[in-house]
Design a protein that fits this description.
The protein has 254 residues and is α+β, with helices and mostly antiparallel strands. Helices cover 55% and strands 9% of the residues. Strands 1, 2, 3, 4 and 5 form a 5-stranded mixed sheet that branches. The chain is elongated and about 100 Å long. The relative contact order is 0.09.
């Protein structure tokens, strides 16, 4: 209960209860026990009954499958698990140390935070996440600057064509669609290459984990739609800005 581990069968170990052993679901499968409750198991030289089955949980890295696990009642003179309702602080450690000493145990007090212990398992992943977030933000800014410049370049290159179309009565929305279509084609080709490369690299990284999420298709589609909408909006913006020019003056330019 202190660790928040859910039970699949039976009861957890409790103070004052008869000695017993708990298995996780993986251990039950490895031992091929159809009805594990009540079966006896020799653990560390002790013959103990199986009193409960814990649901599988990760006590090693997510890179590895959940191995078989057993747990049985041990003396609190050497180990004590404390679940807190507030953040871990040195003051809290001092309070637990005082309780430890009040019980007259002879074992020296040494405290470790489970959150800290688990955090060390994924230190590389956390650093990689921060690095990717930083580079991703910079890359997004550069990409939107490039998108703005690309649409501006298309407008400049086709300015005379746009002026002729305006003289013939083309609306701003029609001109924006013409400009945006060219940008969307370039955007589409770049997106296909980027998504394919991301899927290959991302799946290769995820394959290192025994437990993992799938490739974020929905998030990728939302990102592509965002960039597509930005391309269309930029096209409208540039066409609206360029519409203030006199078409006759534009056509006289070399």
């Amino acid at each position: 209960e202190a660790l928040g581990i859910d039970m699949a069968l039976g009861e957890p170990l409790r103070e004052g209860a008869p000695p017993g052993v708990l298995l996780n679901e993986t251990a039950v499968r490895h031992l091929a026990l159809a009805d594990p409750i009540g079966e006896r198991l020799e653990v560390d030289g002790l013959d103990l009954p199986i009193v409960g089955v814990m649901k599988d949980f990760h006590f090693f890295s997510l890179h590895d499958p959940v191995p078989p696990l057993y747990a049985y009642t041990r003396s609190a003179e050497s180990n004590l698990i404390v679940r807190t309702t507030r953040a871990w602080t040195p003051e809290l450690a001092d309070q637990i140390s005082a309780v430890w000493e009040q019980h007259g145990t002879q074992t020296p007090f040494e405290v470790r935070s489970l959150a800290t212990e688990l955090g060390t398992e994924y230190r590389e992943e956390v650093q990689l996440s921060r690095l990717l977030t930083t580079f991703g933000t910079v890359a997004a800014l550069i990409a939107f600057m490039g998108l703005f410049t690309m649409v501006s370049y298309v407008i400049t290159r086709r300015r005379k064509e746009m002026s002729i179309r305006r003289i013939l009565g083309a609306s701003q929305s029609h001109l924006a669609w013409i400009i945006g279509a060219e940008s969307v084609v370039v955007f589409g080709l770049a997106s296909v290459a980027a998504v394919a490369l991301s899927a290959i690299v991302g799946q290769a990284w995820l394959d290192e984990f025994a437990f993992r999420i799938g490739f974020p298709i929905v998030a990728t589609c939302l990102l592509l739609l965002t960039v597509l909408a930005t391309t269309v909006l930029l096209s409208f913006y540039h066409v609206a800005s360029d519409s203030s020019r006199n078409p006759a003056a534009v056509l006289r330019q070399p």
